[in-house]
Predict the 3D structure of the following.
Amino acid sequence: MTPQGLLLAFKRRWRPALLIGAPAAIVAIVLAWFVLPAHFTAFSLLRVAAVEPRLVFKTVEDNGDFQTYLKTQMAMIKSRFVLNAALRRPGVGELSIVRQQKYPVEWLEKVLVIDTYNSPEILRLSIAGDEPQELATLVNAVKDAYLEEVVLAERKQRIARLADLERIYQDTEKKVRQREERIASLAKQLGSGDSKALTIKQQMALEYIAQLRREHSKLRFELMRAQVGGTVSTGLGTLPGGKNGKGGDDDSLLPEGEEVDPRVAVAQRRIAQLKQLIARYELQVVDQKHPSPVAYRDELAQLQQALQGKPANKDSKDGEKSKDGEEVVLSRVEILKKQEQLLREELEKYSQTVRDIGTSSYELEMMKNEVEQVAKISEKVGAEMEALRIELQSPTRVTLLQEAEVPQLRDMSRKKSLAGVAGVGGFGLVLLAMAVIEFHTRRITDPQDISQTLALDLLGTLPAMPTTGWKFWSQPKAGRLAIWNNALIESVDSIRSILLHGEEGLQRQVLLVASANSGEGKTTFACQLAGSLARAGRKTVLVDFDLRRPRVHELMQTSLELGLSELLSDHLQIDTVVHRTNEPNLDVIPAGRVNDDALHAIARDGADTLFRQLRKDYEFVIVDSSPILYVADGGAIGRNVDGAILAIRSHISRMPVVAVACERLEMLGIKIIGGVMVGVRSSVGGYGYSYDYQYGKMERAEA
């Protein structure tokens, strides 16, 4: 069953379907009008804004589709916790319409109707019933419960979200302050917070360490040489290395050839080193109050004062005193040892400084990156927090437009709409039932059904007689009848060509034209086929074997008297029952007046003697038989025919009935040559002929 098949079935039965469907629709409307009650309807209106109301800012809560939000709110109104809250409100549980229900929540969920009211932004909450006062109370209870449990709850959630944002913002700000304090402490410790400056400082310290290591190596070498060569005498001696001492890089500071106190030489060397360090510090953009350059300046001042004869520190000692108060000059080895100890301490000090600078600068850089990231998060959280704090003052997205009022009139619109639906439904059911019943009759509508479903050879199609539209009781015009007659002749001639040029050696002299049921066009086709064979120059006789309902004499315009019945019952000569026609090569044997003797003769031998004589006298014998399924005459004469052609009328013949007729012919041993479809219109499957253009010209010519 397909829509196309149902449509074709309805086209075949549309008149009775309309005649039955119209009264059925009226009856359904009347019954629905008197059966369905008209209720009171109480409703409340809510507005759901399509866009979230905002004062200034947009927050992350703005993201969302309006239709999704609207459907969510409609579902929330009918949710169980809202309905339970509505039923718990004062006075609602005592309502009679609520007390009558065994399960109030399920009942309220069923009767509560939520829909849009003239606009997608307006929701209507309505309940229909027979108690107007109680209906209004119940609707308002549901509305209030929704506003409190859902709408205000959403606002509370936003307030809670603001509190969470404030807590997160405070935590992030605390982290930023802690890390900034640590950065300041490290910068103060290192003398700078600039990573480039710290890198330069580290490089300078590394260079100075390298210089100290060279000086330390030289000093250790001098110390070893002095230990091997012995000690120096007390008093002034020459400096180790240099021009006088054959070593040292700062001998140029002393007068040439002059012997200097070793302590003076060491002090001068240290002064030169301190000046170089201070100069390098001053070249950098470094805090000048850093402990290292301050210590270097203090040490430089002390050494310079000592060289000028001023005591640098009352606690410092350049030598040892004897018991009588005179200074004892240290030996060369002891001086070198003291110098080596000072250089080693300096080297360890600066090595530790380099390590501290490297570790602290890495830590400083990491903390700066971390502070930057946390500051960005804090800024974003702070902006969202401030925006949400302001937008909390904006109105809610769902607002109340109208409270539910006590309805004064019954709602007739619902009754009218239901009555209309009942009428349309009754009318449609009748049409559908008629189409389904007609479809299950399996009427043949398409010539392809003959070849594909029945597995018969389709010899051809005969066009249907034209109609005049809705005036089905009037006769078609002569011009249209002439066109149809020409199309019919051409169709029959094409079938004749197939029969004349069939398989070689296959005898088709006596042809039986049969049908499964009456009214399927077999007689019309038999007359047309006989006339077509006669026009082709073939001597043809048409025999009417449908004795119970003969029609050949009417179509061929001959007399019914002296026909086949008289021939078989009275044993007349064939020439006495043969009627001549206007067609030179066509004769007709009408049915005659049927009697029992003729029927018995057909049942006895199938008119064997008659068929033998007709084979001798004519080239073709066309036999119009009675319907195969209801009369036995066709099967009785089937033994004397060469083949049968089955007439099938479009939209009339039924598939199962035609299939049974085919089986009946096969059981009787009658070969089925093929089928011919009668009454095919040009709009069905592309078959038939269309002469609208020629017909239009003919009508204009007649006018």
Observations:
- The chain has 24 helices and 14 strands.
